[in-house]
Amino acid sequence: MLRKHKLTFSNRPATAMAGRKKSKAMKKYEREAARGRKLPMETWADVILPENAPTTEWVDTLPEKTEEELIKKKVEEDLKDYPFYHAPQKLTLIAPYCENYLRETTFTLPEVRQDSSLLLTKLLINDVVRSEFMKILFCHHYTASKFAATSQESWQLVKREMTIWDMTSGFFNHCELPKSGPNFDATRPGSVSQTLIVTPVRRPDTEGNHLIPASYVEQFNNVKFMSMAVNNFADNIRNMQLHRVPLLTPDILALLIPKMRELTSLGIYKCQLIHFGDTMRLLDIIQTDRPLGKENQVYLDFYPNYHLGPIDNPTDPYYQGNYGVTWDNWNGNSILATWALVAHIVPQARRQGIDLLSKDAMFRKWLHDSPCWRVDETLEKLFKPETEVAELVALLDCSNPDHFGNVKKFTGFIGNRAHGWEWATQKFHCINCPRGSNLKLGIFFHWPTALMPYRRDDGTYNPTAQYCCLGCQLTQALYAEDDHYKSHKRDLIRLWLTEETEEWNDTDLPKAIRDFDALEISVKAGILEHYRSEFWACEGYDKETQERQRPLTDMERNRMYGCKRRSPLVSAKRMDPKFLTTEQRKWLTPRADRRNVHGGIW
Questions:
Q1: Per residue in 441-465, pLDDT tens?
Q2: CA–CA gap between residue 335 and residue 341 (Å, rounded)
Q3: How would you class 401 by CB atoms within 10 Å of its CB: exposed for 0-12, middle for 13-18, buried for 19 or more?
Q4: Where is this region: Disordered (predicted)?
Q5: Residue 132 has pLDDT above 50, yes or no
Q6: In terms of C-beta density within 10 A (0-12 exposed, 13-18 middle, 19 or more buried), how is residue 500 classed?
Q7: How much helix, strand and coil, in percent to the nearest 5, is found in the chain?
Q8: DSSP-assigned letter for residue 203
Q9: Which of 277, 339, 385, 438 could form a cystine bridge with 475, CB 3.0-4.6 A?
Q10: Smallest Cα–Cα separation from 241: which of 125, 96, 86?
Q11: Phi and psi for 498 in degrees, rounded to 5?
């Protein structure tokens, strides 16, 4: 680093500098020169050459990390690719509520005995009280998991009151075996607790170094065995939680859920083929075939499928972004599409006695994990009747850098916004939304393609036009996704559960079990597994566990033009001005002349 010059000289003539003030260094030099002394002159070599620069010793002021911090860092590094390949075998849990009984070594830390709790030892010793307590506890996975982690006794209590069905090895506690008849085995009677956890359990190889995921043949066979187990013990299931079941779809649930006449709570968490657009379908399924007066008997806790893309690596050319709702960019505003669906999902759930927005609900956690900005504030305004429409619309579109949710800026002048803002506060009928909730605000529609072509010169809109909201477009995009072989899996399930009349079999579970073997679904799953292996050998990566994202086009990548329609990212929430400092907000000034040209972004 260059040192400052002590003196400043100029090549200008004296007349040019006569009217300028002399610097302190110049005055000092002149005084010393008048006394006959000269100050040492600095040359360019004194300034530039590194050997003439003063030596500086750098001292690391950071404190040394403790042993606990080093262990924590190592554990985080070991879990970096979790739950992908090469996940370590030193995990305490290998599935929700399932201890790792395949550990090679014991725990390194000694067990600490905790004091007994009178609540757990005295109150919950009563079967009726314990049953009601567990029923309330398992309404939400969040509360059950937090309670299980509070103490050793609470963990043991939760373990005793549940049954785990393994969707990897196909162990269903013998519930899939016949309960009577010539094939009945008295040595392996099936049983199920009132709380049932259905989840794939991580399965290591014989050496314990790698995990062996279930093949497609095993996955489809396990779905069949699970259906047989539900058919045998449907009346004994009170609470059912489905965690990451890979081939579960709403069509399969339409066969299983109505059979469980005593079911009171249903939890569905991050199943690959059950996305955010299936929420209304699930609310309809849990009401199917319920007794009169018990239509709202089942409580739903739902966390839709969620994508963050491949492992976030800036040098990875196949990583395009964390879209959250979808795997790839779908060229739509996921934020407005999500709010468009929430606007009619939440009221319908409340009519069924389900609170999807409680602090313990996984649905609300999914909204916080999604690309949506200011979730709590938006939910409060969205379902408050006295909220002004312009204020609500500005808040729904708060990710727009033209106004960032400021209603005065939203209703004020924004450059190149020829279409104005009034259209966003008007209401239009969506042709695909369910009746009773198809009247939506204009902000939930894509202006350039859905509304602008039908606008008349006098500012009115064609009443016979067919409008489709962003929520329905997102649902269609989710069903059309092809990553992780989703379309192939759905095709096999459609082949299994459709009749000759091409109608879905959503009522006859025994027939579906028979059709599984008659249609040779396992054989077709083996063909899909073979196709997966061939693709892996040719392309060098596995689409199931190492899926890549679709590369962006030039138009999607170019940020100069307003006609860009790239879907928002989850990480973009960091740019919310409400959470930035004054210095950071100075760099958020948008180029409205570019953003809103050609009809705007959305």
A1: 999 998 888 888 888 878 788 877 8
A2: 10
A3: middle
A4: 1-26
A5: yes
A6: exposed
A7: 40, 10, 50
A8: -
A9: 277
A10: 96
A11: -105, 145
